[in-house]
């Protein structure tokens, strides 16, 4: 008795090696020794499927029909998965709704089989990490979108897939917006693996009334000065941006710079709190470091002065990773997220400057950006470096000079 999948004269080992479904079914029928890999090899190679079934007095025809049915069902599931484009990621909170609406409108007249989940950045990325840890390369989502460094450069998560070159920048943008391709910064991935669609810049918001004789800070170096100890509010809860700040401070000022950053911390606030911090009665921060978007919330007449650091706003890039094995199916979706339309939603609605060369980010060319750099990323274990910086920072916050 044979079928297109197997012959009952084949050894038990050959069939179970080819079909996990056979192992599951045989174990359920009393072949518990097949759970052990070594036993399966020894016992399975010495007996045919037909002989094994007769040994247990199991009806061969009924078994074959049930096994073939299980194999077919799993093939159908895999076929559906193969044709489905899966997208996972997080979008910056201020633009998640307009971006999702634009995407769904774009999808309306497309015949695409999609499974997508684009959550708000405030939900965090632990759910994405779980996806990476528990799934095989084949089961991974086809497109990932997220800001920050800790997810895409963790050697235990994306690092293993990056090494296998399964991601490719297929946006066709040869040169990014002039804001991100100039003498100070070149944001394009030279290895053409990571796409970037925009950035989240960190700027200062200074309470002029609380300066009390101190000079207006104009750079990251100023923030680290002794006079600003215990006077700065940092976006500690915004992991993407805060990690970018830690990494850039470490790169430019070393461990001592991270310690100084820790000592300057007064408290961590949500950006919406930061812009209203001047109305607090006590413990008003002199400087708040926040995403550029929230400077839009400042009202006229308030003492809050936005300052774009002269050495550059530290940026947390919004990355997009696409599987190259599905390049043809993914191309129209990737083109949408890299488009001028999406770029303008990011830039104009959210103050998250776009890399699309056709978008006017409406930010003066004098305002520079501070970028960690692809060479630096390549030379360091970014995930481990983030943990190291966090430890130095937290110890400095607690006043532990043994750091």
General description of the model:
This protein is α/β, with parallel strands linked by helices and 403 residues long. It folds into three domains: 12-80, SP0561-like (Orthogonal Bundle); 82-199 and 317-371, Periplasmic binding protein-like II (D-Maltodextrin-Binding Protein, domain 2, 3-Layer(aba) Sandwich), CATH 3.40.190.10; 200-313 and 393-397, Periplasmic binding protein-like II (D-Maltodextrin-Binding Protein, domain 2), CATH 3.40.190.10. It has helices spanning 12-18, 20-28, 37-44, 49-55, 60-83, 93-107, 126-134, 155-163, 220-223, 239-264, 271-274, 327-337, 340-350, 374-379, 382-397, and strands spanning 85-91, 114-120, 143-147, 195-207, 232-234, 265-268, 287-291, 304-307, 313-322, 369-370. Strands 1, 2, 3, 4, 5, 6, 7, 8, 9 and 10 form a ten-stranded mixed sheet that branches. The longest helix has 26 residues, at 239-264. The radius of gyration is 27 Å and the shape is elongated. The relative contact order is 0.14.
Low-confidence stretches: 274-282
CATH class of the largest domain: Alpha Beta
Fourth-tier CATH superfamily name of the largest domain: Periplasmic binding protein-like II
**Radius of gyration of CA atoms, rounded to a whole number:** 27 Å
* Distance, first to last CA: 72 Å
Beta-strand share of residues:
5-15%
Q: Find the structural class using helix and strand composition.
A: alpha/beta
Q: Structurally, how many domains make up the residues?
A: 3
Q: Remind me, CATH topology of the largest domain?
A: D-Maltodextrin-Binding Protein, domain 2
The pLDDT mean sits at 88
Proportion of helical residues: 40-55%
Overall geometric form: elongated
Largest sheet: 10 strands, mixed
CATH architecture name of the largest domain = 3-Layer(aba) Sandwich
Q: How many strand segments? A: 10
What is the tally of helical segments? Answer: 15
What is the element string, with H for helices and E for strands?
HHHHHEHEHEHEHEHEHEEEHHEHH
